[in-house]
Amino acid sequence: MPAMRDTTGWTFMKMHGLGNDFVVVDGRARAFDMTPALATALADRHRGVGFDQLAVITAPADGTGEGTNDGADAHLTFYNADGSLSAACGNATRCIARHIMDGTGRRALRLTTDRGVLLAEDAGNGLTSINMGPPQLDWAEIPLAHEMDTLHLPIDGDPVATGMGNPHCTFFVEDAEAVDLASFGPAHEHHPLYPLRTNVQVAQVIGPDRIRMRVWERGTGITLASGSSSCATGVAAARRGLTGRKVEIVLDGGTLTIDWRADGVWMTGGTAHVFDGVLTEAFLEALA
Fold it and tell me: Does 15 map to a domain?
């Protein structure tokens, strides 16, 4: 279990992007061993802290940390509420980027994740932009179980498959509010076409380049917002010819702007650093 138990307490930050909430641990100054069991315990909103995803900040793999074109500023690792790993978490990345930029005065960062290098920029007016990288559109990259047209999956409802470092399944519907997401989401998260499970979106085009979207996140459930899901939905809508490549995604927790450019899918929105906390030794010892 975590090495920090030899000292008193363990600090963390609670953040959210449009209500998509996170526990963030900065491991750059204090090393520890995060485990799936510990992540799951922390995710419990009654007996732990509660989160949609957990993010761990560590030093960049190349060890430079100088933020130059050749080096990254930090590495991010993400856990879902069930303790499983996720290669990407767009809203958590924006929250952490804002935290680092506010602490350093920087306006641009390079962050590494299992998704790859992500560029972050201060978008002004308290907003933060992240380049989530090019979408994965080939069936093997997403991944799907076998070769197929990712623009029209052989699933009732004719969804679109997209990879954003994690797999997505986007259904375009007439009324997003009418979908029983609590049952629809898990039924498709575990669809056999998705060997690694999938995030599930129900999306309704509500105006020119404007989409109402609700999301079920794999390993977590219904969330108020999802950055990677918003990117996937924006890409899917553009591929279907339903919108242009720059759209507003209206989520339960607020609105994100998605802009699919030549260099990747940029996501812009607000963030919040809610509070800092300290886990007690009693809580940590109870997990032993």
Answer: yes
Give the closest residue to 162 by CA, choosing from 233, 226, 218, 223.
233
pTM: 0.91
Residue 12 belongs to a domain: yes
Residue 158: closest CA among 143, 166, 145, 148: 148
Residue 225 CA to residue 223 CA, distance in Å, equals: 5
Give how far Cα 182 sits from Cα of 134, 186, 215, Å: 30, 7, 10
Spatial distance between the Cα atoms of 45 and 223, rounded to a whole number of angstroms: 14
Residues 128 and 248 in one domain: no
Mean pLDDT on 24-43: 89
User: 241 in the Ramachandran plot: left (φ > 0), alpha (ψ -120 to 50) or beta?
Assistant: left
| 171-219 pLDDT, tens digit each | 999 999 999 999 999 999 999 999 999 999 999 999 999 999 999 999 9
Number of domains in the chain: 2
